[in-house]
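Hypothesis: this fold can be encoded by more than one sequence.
Test: take the structure tokens below, design a sequence, compare later.
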């Protein structure tokens, strides 16, 4: 992907989300007859635009974010005019403030629901709890005493977890100790795992991975001839521990036709087999293959509109709760703030998604839209969540906060936000220098 694509696709993604967010505020303000003076994509000096009615629609010099400037919205401005923001009832102002994040949530749900009607990855559930496929030497899992073949029956407060559940618990637990219960040789054992921390990303490191299981043996190739079967767990190739399906694919394709030694487990017994790769024409290219399909046990299907919407809502609720759990972990200092992705990280994610195709790009757009909504709902002055919080306080007090208090809160919030943005940008840059 060229430099232009790496700049273009992030701008397209962020541009869509920013415009949609500000349209939420704009439409709500117009619905309640608030005069909107400026609708800006970006901050700083005006570059170009057009005027429609009483609103100046503009592009500004700093294309990072955007804003809607409503008449009479700042402390000290005219609140007597019935068309000013501060001249409206508090419940109307609250709806206007909430409309931006709300439309980002609606966009996230709508996009993901649309994608589910086209392609829905349905996981084929395995019987029983998750099984440890590999433990890295000298990792947190190894130091705790976990071994390959352990069946994980408990992680934190969750019984019989899937590997998705395990990865989620590990992520939100951060640097905190993780309680893991396993079954080994008919015995129930409990371990306390103290995760390490990635110096580059600040993410917790445990050093375990799920089994790399054979889902299908292709007829006519060496894997079938040498007796590999569905359900065999591949543990290593050419003596190197296997940690991912892609690792096996790359090792075979880079073999240049030379035999590869594959170790696997069958019913708990370790076996080794020597496989001869064959050069196969896939229709797009010729690649070396041994004839095993280790892809994740997922089938692609399509959902009806109603089911797609319900599944999308469930998916976004789960992700929103995860975001808040991560933020809580950062506040409690269990999770490193370096795990947050800033604009540079989002740009990398957007460009990579665009490279993989339209469906991946729109799935990323849905994810970032939800993140934008959650971030804007944080109770930080200057953000929508801060505005909502102050309005709720005033509604409980049944009077306005003083101008002095409002200005102090806004100033504090603006300073905090600048520091936060500065830290995220620094973290973004340092992670890429370290990587």
């Amino acid at each position: 992907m060229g430099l232009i694509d790496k700049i273009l696709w992030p701008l397209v993604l962020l541009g869509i989300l920013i415009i949609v967010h500000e349209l939420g505020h704009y439409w709500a303000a117009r619905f309640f007859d608030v005069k909107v003076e400026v609708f800006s994509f970006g901050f700083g000096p005006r570059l170009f635009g057009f005027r429609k009615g009483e609103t100046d629609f503009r592009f500004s010099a700093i294309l990072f974010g955007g804003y809607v400037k409503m008449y009479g919205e700042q402390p000290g401005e005219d609140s007597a005019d019935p068309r000013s923001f501060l001249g409206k009832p508090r419940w109307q102002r609250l709806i206007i403030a909430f409309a931006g994040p709300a439309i980002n949530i609606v966009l996230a749900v709508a996009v993901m629901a649309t994608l589910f009607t086209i392609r829905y990855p349905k996981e084929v559930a395995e019987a029983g709890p998750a099984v440890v496929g590999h433990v890295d030497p000298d990792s947190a899992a190894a130091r705790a005493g976990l071994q390959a073949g352990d069946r994980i029956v408990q992680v934190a407060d969750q019984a019989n977890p899937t590997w998705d559940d395990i990865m989620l618990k590990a992520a939100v637990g951060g640097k905190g100790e993780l309680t893991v219960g396993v079954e080994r040789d008919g015995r129930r054992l409990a371990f306390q795992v103290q995760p390490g921390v990635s110096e580059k990303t600040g993410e917790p490191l445990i050093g375990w991975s799920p089994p790399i299981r054979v889902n299908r043996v292709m007829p006519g190739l060496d894997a079938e001839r040498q007796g590999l079967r569905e359900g065999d767990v591949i543990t290593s190739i050419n003596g190197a521990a296997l940690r991912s399906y892609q690792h096996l694919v790359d090792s075979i394709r880079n073999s240049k036709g030379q035999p590869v030694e594959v170790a696997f487990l069958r019913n708990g017994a370790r076996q080794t087999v020597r496989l001869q790769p064959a050069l196969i024409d896939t229709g797009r290219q010729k690649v070396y293959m041994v004839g095993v399909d280790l892809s994740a046990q997922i089938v692609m299907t399509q959902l009806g509109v109603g089911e797609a919407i319900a599944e999308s809502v469930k998916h976004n609720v789960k992700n929103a709760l995860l975001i808040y759990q991560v933020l809580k972990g950062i506040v409690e200092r269990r999770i490193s703030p370096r795990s947050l992705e800033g604009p540079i990280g989002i740009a990398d994610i957007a460009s990579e998604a665009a490279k993989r195709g339209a469906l991946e790009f729109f799935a990323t757009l849905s994810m970032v839209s939800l993140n934008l909504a959650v971030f804007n709902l944080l109770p930080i002055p200057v953000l929508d969540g801060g505005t909502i919080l102050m309005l709720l306080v005033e509604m409980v007090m049944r009077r306005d906060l003083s101008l002095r208090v409002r200005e102090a809160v806004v100033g504090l919030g603006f300073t905090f936000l600048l520091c936060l943005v500065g830290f995220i940008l620094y973290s973004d840059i340092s992670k890429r220098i370290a990587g």
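Residues 403-434 form the longest helix (32 residues). The chain is about 45% helix and 25% strand.
Hypothesis status: open.
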